[in-house]
Amino acid sequence: MLDRADLNKIPEQAEVWEKVERKLRAGLMPPQGMPRPDKAKVDAFASLLETQLDQAAIAKPNPGPALLRRLTRTEYGNAVRDLLGLRIDIATLLPGEGYSNEGFDNDASALGVSPVLMEQYLSAAWDISSLAVGAGKASASIDTFKVRPDLSQDSHIDGLPVGTRGGILVHYDFPADGEYEFKPSIWRNNAEQVRGLERPTQFVITLDGVKIHQAEFGDAADEAFSLNAHLAAGVVIDKRLSTRAAVKAGPHDVGFTFLQKTSAVPIELVQPLQRENINGSENGGIPVLSQASIVGPVNPTGPGDTASRRRIFICHPPDNGSDNGACATKILTRLARLAYRRPASKEEMQQLLRLYDLGRKQAGGEYGIEGALSYILASPQFVFRTEHDPENVAVNAAFRVDDYDLATRLSFFLWSSIPDDELLTLAGQGKLRNPAVLDQQVKRMLDDPKSSALVTNFADEWLHLRNLAVAAPVDVLFPDFDDNLRQGFQKETELFFESILRENRSVLDLLNANYTFLNDRLAANYGIPNVYGSQFRRVTLTDENRWGLLGQGSILTVTSYGNRTAPVIRGKYVLSVLLGNPPPPPPPDVPALVEAESAAPQTMRQRMEAHRANPVCANCHRLMDPIGFSMENFDAIGRFRTAEDGVPVDASGMLADGTKVNGPISLRKAILNHPEQFIRTLTEALMTYAVGRALGPSDMPSVRAVVRGAAPQNNTLASLIQGIVHSTPFQMKLKEATAPANAAPARTATHSSSEPAVTASNVSH
């Protein structure tokens, strides 16, 4: 590729020269072992490339393709929450998305559509509208919530009452006023034997933290019954623990848990491991919950006064239609505006009112609203993010998106949800595009609790935290690993990332902060003393090895195998996720790592050295392995060690730019010697997430502009986000040759028409 590169055609060959600029800034060019100019000359050449590429982008902005995007499952659930005030478990209604090559599930390339999927959206729309309105008589259903088998239940579960242990906390939306049955099921083995029956145990069911049932089980009679009549014992005990109670419609928290007992024997003598049991072993131990079911409503008394009904029924439509649809028009106009992210057209409102009138004639005004709402929730205007292309712009010309589309882009970026009334009002007035107004809205939205989506969606996907759900370290090698630790790893990193956002700290603190968030379980895994209780709290780290993301169990676990660490995976992770220079894919038929045959113990490094001797593998491993080896002081579940199988850990190596490292501290410092590389990589990830597609060469000038603009503001997350919101890829798009079949209709508001093609003189790059 470089043999065709021409320094006189840098802008025309942007695809080539952007790659060159990236490798120069990363110290990867020239390659190791080749003559290398001094740093000043390399920086000067990189700056020359950047200047010409950036100037060309200003003269002729190219925002890249704006692809049609379906709402992800998470976005759909959040949109329902903000539209109707319903807290639903969307995972029970819709399937999840796959991940694109960029690692985000909101990437348009990963959001396929099939007839089966659209049927699921239709079914979800009916279920949600029925739950929100409750116009018909609610029928009884059974919802079962399973406890992961590797969850240790000997300690307090966050959210359940103090003084309890184990169990599960269920967030549940009750569809109607009425009685509901609460049915816990105690774990038993394949022979239906219940463990821990030799001692009395108190079981409690709570509703919004208030006890509604308490029962005791476990004595000599129960134990004998379990041993002699196994098949019936568990059923009898489950029935004793179950109850029925009247519940008002709407969201409630239901707890199924055990009362905690104090032991006269020191816990470390009874339980040498941090976790309560291995594989649910029935040999002794304590009773634990396997699952819990909620059944109902039984004898429903009505839809109740729920948050969703209050949000929907701003007036009450008469069953006989005596108001000529005035109330229904008011309700549906408001719902459609929020759901479609713009005012509904005359034709759209006529369709909704026809559906309303059809339902009203069948079963009354509320049923008519329910039918129209189900149509809204399954409509292309709600499920897809379509954007309006103005007629006065030439095909393939760049133009600024209108205010309604800008509001939608902004809300799904920061909230993973639909715009609220304030955003839509500003869009309708044509004020949102004003830079000062836009900055005010970004600040308001980041201060809103809904911006936690940047943590649970962006950060979880960027850092691969969702892979923790399938992490399964081998019990024999890591007996202390359980679901409590898995959840703790994820929560630590989420709280840590959120602190960087909320406290307006530099994003470099993601690598260098001397604090984290721990509970007793996580602290014990890290060997940090004097942390007690299941609640997470901020802890100052005295061991510099633990500073930042590279010292957190979440990152160290998802970059390991179940039976050992994986220096290659860790090295690739740092290169790809944190430094933005992923190694090339491995060639076909790469030989597997040979297991040690020597009688003497071998460290992972010693086994990898033999693997690297293969010339097919050597080139890429020169990039990845030194990084991975420098993290070898952490085992596969994030515990610090100085030896592996009795052999001292050798964490030394040399990075691609010639920097020597020896352990996690020196690796972190080596990365921070080039802070702009990490900031740029994070900016690229944020922009990819914001625009919902892979970035290309035309986006790189905008990335560099965001990074430059954030520097005077201490490189905070907020400054990067503001820069992205003002950037060309976020604010502009190219006129498509043909509009998609489900494109949004023309705007009805007079203040939101798009501007003709622009030169981006007033749009940040």
Describe the structure.
This protein has 765 residues and is an alpha+beta fold. The chain is 41% helix and 13% strand. The protein contains 28 helices and 18 strands. The strands form 7 sheets. Strands 2-9-4-7 form a 4-stranded antiparallel sheet, covered by helices on one side. A 4-stranded antiparallel sheet has the order 3-8-5-6, covered by helices on one side. The radius of gyration is 29 Å and the shape is flat. The two termini are 27 Å apart.
Q: For the CA atoms, what is the radius of gyration?
A: 29 Å
Cα(first) to Cα(last) distance is 27 Å
Q: Give start-end ranges of low-pLDDT stretches.
A: 264-270, 278-283, 739-765
Share of residues in helices? 40-55%
How many DSSP H or I helices?
28
Q: How do the strands and helices of this protein lay out in sequence?
A:
Blueprint: H1 14-26, H2 39-59, E1 69-70, H3 73-84, H4 115-133, E2 141-146, E3 164-174, E4 177-186, E5 201-207, E6 210-217, H5 220-228, H6 230-241, E7 243-247, E8 250-259, H7 267-270, E9 289-302, H8 307-312, H9 326-340, H10 346-363, H11 365-378, H12 380-383, E10 384-385, E11 398-400, H13 403-414, H14 421-428, H15 435-447, H16 453-462, H17 483-502, H18 509-512, E12 515-518, H19 520-526, E13 537-540, H20 553-558, H21 567-578, H22 604-612, H23 615-629, E14 643-644, E15 647-648, E16 652-654, E17 660-662, H24 664-672, H25 675-691, H26 700-710, H27 717-725, H28 728-731, E18 732-734
Antiparallel strand pairs: 1-10, 2-9, 3-8, 4-7, 4-9, 5-6, 5-8, 11-18, 12-13, 14-15, 16-17
Helix pairs in contact: 1-2, 2-26, 4-11, 5-6, 9-10, 9-11, 10-11, 13-14, 15-27, 16-17, 21-23, 22-23, 25-26, 26-27
